[in-house]
What does this fold into?
Amino acid sequence: MTTTQSVPAPAPDVERPTTGKISIMMFSGTADKFIPLGILSQAAAALGMEVNVFVTGFALHGFTNEHHDLPFPVEFEAMAPALAQGMEAKHVESWDTMLRKAKELGAKVYACSAMCEIMGLTKADFNDLVDDVVGAATFLEMAEHGETFFV
Amino acid sequence: MEPETVPHTLVDARGSACPGPITDLSMAYRRSKVGDVIELWATDPGVKPDVRAWATKTGNLVRSVEHQPDKIVVVLEILRR
It folds into this structure.
């Protein structure tokens, strides 16, 4: 069946488009947490929002040149094969492909300088997803007046 | 029907899961000019509310959303860049 539905013009919104900003503090190093990172960063960037990702803690391993297979948390391990199969069947892209698209639309990714020091990592140890190594104060300043997620 | 004189860009995002269609739309938007019409084809069921959110955020207009048997067709008018 074919139905056509006309959508009335949202007059106030057309007059004054909203922008906005999300900042994602990526801390967890398990595969499940990287899926929402990809989806939310790509969707926000597609909406024209400013997107800042601050990578710290166990999440740093997802961004190094040396490849690390991100594990699933034990409580989700049983679900992981069905999830992977479903994502493939529905052509859901990998988290890094989604984040790369977000970056094409302006998203920025920063690695935490303190965690880099602790782990003995420098900017050269990260792949092309990482724009720079910055401190917490820089990230907090970037995140100010926007929404911040801790993942 | 659109008059043929209006620049009409077709974005085929069929088979692409959320947020693929909105991203493809956003990429086309970057190449568009004020007054352009973008037609988006998608199969992801989230596209209908998502294009409205996109239009609100970017200040553009959703002209129509049509459910066809094999796809959802959204026509947008670019009001601002």
Q: What stands out?
A: Chain B has two helices and four strands. The interface with chain A takes residues 15-20, 22-23, 25-27, 50, 52-69, 79-80 of chain B (CB under 8 Å). Chain B has one domain: 8-74.
